Amino acid sequence: xxxxxxxxxxxxxxxxxxxxxxxxxxxxxxxxxxxxxxxxxxxxxxxxxxxxxxxxxxxxxxxxxxxxxxxxxxxxxxxxxxxxxxxxxxxxxxxxxxxxxxxxxxxxxxxxxxxxxxxxxxxxxxxxxxxxxxxxxxxxxxxxxxxxxxxxxxxxxxxxxxxxxxxxxxxxxxxxxxxxxxxxxxxxxxxxxxxxxxxxxxxxxxxxxxxxxxxxxxxxxxxxxxxxxxxxxxxxxxxxxxxxxxxxxxxxxxxxxxxxxxxxxxxxxxxxxxxxxxxxxxxxxxxxxxxxxxxxxxxxxxxxxxxxxxxxxxxxxxxxxxxxxxxxxxxxxxxxxxxxxxxxxxxxxxxxxxxxxx
Amino acid sequence: xxxxxxxxxxxxxxxxxxxxxxxxxxxxxxxxxxxxxxxxxxxxxxxxxxxxxxxxxxxxxxxxxxxxxxxxxxxxxxxxxxxxxxxxxxxxxxxxxxxxxxxxxxxxxxxxxxxxxxxxxxxxxxxxxxxxxxxxxxxxxxxxxxxxxxxxxxxxxxxxxxxxxxxxxxxxxxxxxxxxxxxxxxxxxxxxxxxxxxxxxxxxxxxxxxxxxxxxxxxxxxxxxxxxxxxxxxxxxxxxxxxxxxxxxxxxxxxxxxxxxxxxxxxxxxxxxxxxxxxxxxxxxxxxxxxxxxxxxxxxxxxxxxxxxxxxxxxxxxxxxxxxxxxxxxxxxxxxxxxxxxxxxxxxxxxxxxxxxx
Lengths: 358, 358
What we know:
49% helix, globular, alpha/beta
């Protein structure tokens, strides 16, 4: 499948596969920094991946995502499953690193070597945060994690992209968080597989649940009327809320709403159950399989985009700076300059694959 | 400069240049949809661009950006300047279009044909929202707008990218908006050229101003200590606030803080003055010129990235779907599949430039 794996990469893969946490940690760092080793490593690890359940969590800051991740990890550990956690942190504008960091996270699991935690700063991924996340998931997956949780902060476009890395995405909301504003943000409806209404012991929780129900119902209708869900019947509100024990939907997945209080552990088992149900839908229905196929296509196209840019940047070298000078002097318009750069890239001979930084 | 401009494009350019609003509107739509005409049009319009002042506005929802844009437009009109406005709206998850739209915006200027307003939905730009914004600015610029205002909703990564299209970016804040959370978001400090503290008649405004001052001071120190600002002296708080009438900084630009009440028009003249000062810095100092050069480089690199992807997608056609099937069947890993696709793209003959959709 791969041409030839360098010896030190094979040894590294062996260490990762045998549960060596330092080797795993080094691998994640290599993937984050996109060293040329990481390229070979990812190729070699691919054969061992594809087994882990990947669950993404997103939602407004303050909805309690971190404690929810903590509780979920605890729930999976109760079931004797190993857990990998990737926390996407906003980048500090001052240090350039992650703001929260591993140290104040997940104190509870600090001594449990079956829970592997890594904070990843949002910056420095050359626009490819979701590729970085996906590659890290692949490493944790090949290392034998049963479950990988990916937590993002906020609901920006980048964070929503990251959730596409997951099999199942939980959108976490809480009463009184101004979620009505956040929820309307582009993409949030499409990425939600399960809604977790956290802090469900707080006032206003019924209103939050009703808002989500309405949003789901409106979304279904809009999609039906625009012909996006052929053969799909819109569920009534009651069906939506009560569907946890109903038969698997054969068409589009309608996200269930689960109330929880992560600080007390309430509703966490139900949340895991809802993600399990979603897994069954993904694996057991044609619509679910179609979605997995679509996601794989997105991954490959995204990887292709990034690799193209990397290759072109390497091949063109100073030509790009030359073009900038030409446009600045108004000797050429930027559109023509771009066409010329692309033609130059395609005209140059291919470098041997895997050479240089990947 | 350009090889040959098709006759209908030349005619279109003439109409736009002579103030035909329908021709302008059609041009913006063509640019938004990236038709092949828009490609030729942008090339032809480039020669007439480079004159407009481009001012970006960003900040948390609820800080009153729309009314501020409205007041700023009024201020520029008082000075007999023509104004183009591009409002980046979140995309409605249901209709796929912009949520706010032109119709409820800027009622005040609805009958003034020297104010051209266009709402742009955040979706459907193939990741290239800032390129779309930049191209629209170029059209408005070539059409003779003296000032182009770009308003973004929210402070996500995409919105921050859009602000890089502007010469001067105003970050709009307001008391009690939870800006402390939003402000920490990666990138906001770097993109701010002027802070507008709106709703300055509300309680808590002094605290908001103090927070921003502290952020600026910390940012300067962090950059000095990390060696990012050779030769730059950190201004004291007093200098920061009082600098509006001081001499132009020869090194790094330190964003002034301007209080305003957009609904009453208070502080709007000061805001325009602050952006004028920033323009003088950009045009009159080495640091300012370096920044303009850097931005142009970013534009070209961004355009190159997008054009590469477009060309590759066109050239590869069904090969990408084939690769997806191969990875799905686990016959090949996604990294090797990507390398093969890039090699295939480079090996294929170049199409004639400007053919097909650009």
